[in-house]
Amino acid sequence: MAAGGEEKAVFHALRKDAAETLPRIAEKHATVVEDAVEKGAKNLAAHAATEARIAEDLKAIVSSDVKVAGPRVATETNALAGAGGEVRSVVAPRSEIELGPLEGDAERFGNSALRDGPNYQQEIDGQLGPRGLDRAEHDRLRLTPTNNLSEEEIRQVVQVRDAIKLDEGRMVTKVVKPDVAQAYLENATELGGRSFNPAEFRGSIARGSDTADLRSMDELRDGLALDDGGLGWTPIPHGASEAYQMRFPAPHGMHADPTLGAVGDQALADRVAGMAGQDAGKAWDAPFLGTGYTGGGVPEWDAAPTGFPHGAEIWRLNADGTEEAVGYFDKNDGLWKYHD
After folding, report:
1. Phi/psi class of residue 101: alpha, beta or left (left: φ > 0; alpha: ψ in -120 to 50)?
2. 263 three-class SS
3. Are 286 and 145 in contact (CB under 8 A)?
4. Distance CA 45, CA 68 (A)
5. How do residues 72-129 score in pLDDT, each as one tens digit?
6. Which residues pair with 314 in a beta bridge?
7. C-alpha closest to that of 179 among 107, 237, 238, 105
């Protein structure tokens, strides 16, 4: 058989069989197809009727009962419909999601929270060893006003002091006078005849890890060099029964320089601060040292006006060594609030 002839013969035979068989198959199964079509049509009609009833019911509810409120923070009570059938949103504003709720009776920054890293004693030892410097001699230098030190001695003190950092998130403490603490807690806008911003802090601050062991009135006053000699500026006068200390993590963007400078000599102050890369030094009055430490040896920073972080607290320290949080800063509202 010629090439392709066999395939052609098979093709014609199959076509003939199909022509004879298909009509019989169609006749046999026609009733099955008709039944399926009829059932499908009935189901579609029932579904359409159901959708129509649902649409009418929803239209009646929306027109009479549902009221949509603005965004709210989700709680166990307001996540469900309120009184009168009011439906409340459970999507919180972005700022409140980021900051989170604060409990009025939850103290966050007790003494243990202040111990969030090495203290200055440990860091000084870590700096002096590799430099081959004597600790007793270095302590003498750093507790001496820079006015009385040589250029080489100042440089040694500044290099070690500049290695002690106050990084973002490290606990910060600041002792304030009772009337200042009261002004914060009452969200006053004026203090002593001057404008006052209760949402920000400024001035001398210290790290929590460096002040955590200062538990009594005398320890605080001596460690932070707060003895004013009777001039009236100290927040902890002799015989005080209590002191107020602000506590909070160093906020993002805070600018605070070590207190480098000199006593009453701006030219020397600038030269000392320049050794640490600062533009200008402090030329403050005694008991200022200019070495970056208080007269009690605690590292000190001078902070530019900075907004409080969410949850900052004010603590009352008592003469017997006990302490308690009296208020906290709620950044959601921009207000200080008393602890419950």
Report:
1. beta
2. coil
3. yes
4. 35
5. 333 333 322 333 333 333 333 333 334 666 665 568 999 999 999 999 999 999 999 9
6. 246, 327
7. 237
Q: What is the pTM of this model?
A: 0.70
Separate counts of helices (H) and strands (E) for the chain: 10, 10
- Read off φ and ψ for residue 287, nearest 5 degrees: -85, 20
Could you give the CA distance from residue 14 to residue 22 in angstroms, rounded to a whole number?
12
Determine the Cα–Cα distance for residues 41 and 33; give it in Å rounded to an integer.
13
- pLDDT category at 340 given cuts 50, 70, 90 is confident
Q: Per-domain residue ranges for the chain?
A: 1-64, 66-101, 106-338
The residue written with tokens 């009221």 in the block is 67
Q: Which of 221, 225, 184, 197 has the alpha carbon at shortest distance from 314?
A: 184
Which neighbouring-strand residues pair with 330?
Answer: 335
Q: Coil, strand, or helix at residue 113?
A: helix
Q: Is there a contact between 132 and 156 (Cβ–Cβ < 8 Å)?
A: no
Q: Which residues pair with 203 in a beta bridge?
A: 303
